[in-house]
Amino acid sequence: MTSHAYEVALFGEFFAHDLPAILNRFTLHSESAHQMHAREVVFEPFDAQYQRDSGTEPVLLRARKELLEPDSKWLLYSYLKPESVRVHPEATVRPWATCQVVGEALEFASALGYVRRSQIYKRGYVFRRGNLVIQMFQQEHADPKTGKPIPAHPDTLWEVEVKTAAPVRNTQETPLSQSLDAVLEVQLLMKGLLDLRRQDV
After folding, report:
1. Where is this gene product found (predicted)?
2. Domains (ranges, CATH) in the chain?
3. Are residues 51 and 60 in contact, defined by beta-carbon separation less than 8 angstroms?
4. Short-list 73, 50, 71, 49, CA closest to 63
5. Which residues make beta-bridge pairs with 74?
6. Torsions phi, psi of 15, nearest 5?
7. The whole model's pTM is what?
8. DSSP state of 126
C-alpha cells in the first residue's frame, strides 16, 4: 500500500478594511513575511468531460510560478479528493503531490495530456510559521488579450490559506496530528478577527 503525502489546510476570507489588523496579527505570530505575486494555471485531462460523464472527478494539475523572484521555477502540483469530514472534521486534509519543473511547465503539462482550463494571478503576502505557510491574497484576472494580470479592485475580498509548506507523510516521526495542531493553533490566534475553517475543494 502506498503512503500518501498530505496537505493540511484551513481557509478564510475577509474584507479589505480588515487588512491592517489581520496583517499585523499574522506578522506578529510568524517567523518571516514577504510580498507575493504568483501566476497559477489550472489544467484538466483532455478527456475531463468524458470522465465527469462517467461519474469520475478528473484530477486537475496546477502550475504555479512566483513572479517576484527572478529565478523562480514552475511548481506543478495536484490534489486528490479531501479526506472525509468524519475523519478530519477540523481541517482539510488531502493527498498532495508536487514536482518542480525546469523550463516551460505549460508545455510539459500539455505533453502529459492536459489542457489549460483557467489561469489567475494572486497578489498579497506570504508568512512562514514553523512548517506552515500562510498565504493572504487578492485574486487578479488575466487580461484576455495580453494574458497579463489586471489589478484587483480595492474592495475585492482577501483570501487566506493556512497550510503545510510541504507534503506531510503520516508517520510516527511526523504524525498528521502535529500538522493539524499547528493549523488549529493559527485558527485560535486569529479568533475574533478572521474565521478560518475547513473547506472541501
Report:
1. Nucleus
2. 5-189 (2.40.320.10)
3. no
4. 73
5. 101
6. -80, 150
7. 0.90
8. E
The label of the residue with cell 512548517 reads: 131
Residues 6+ apart with CB under 8 A from 99: 75, 76, 77
Cα angle: 29, vertex 93, 105; to 5 degrees:
90
Mean pLDDT of 81-95: 92
- In DSSP notation, 51-112 reads HHHTT-PPPPEEEEEESSSTTPPEEEEEE-PPPPTTT-SSSEEEEEEEEEESS-HHHHHHHT
CA–CA separation, 3 vs 145, rounded Å? 44
Helices (H) and strands (E) in the chain, counts: 4, 10
pLDDT per residue as tens digits for the range 128-162: 999 999 999 999 999 989 989 999 999 999 999 99
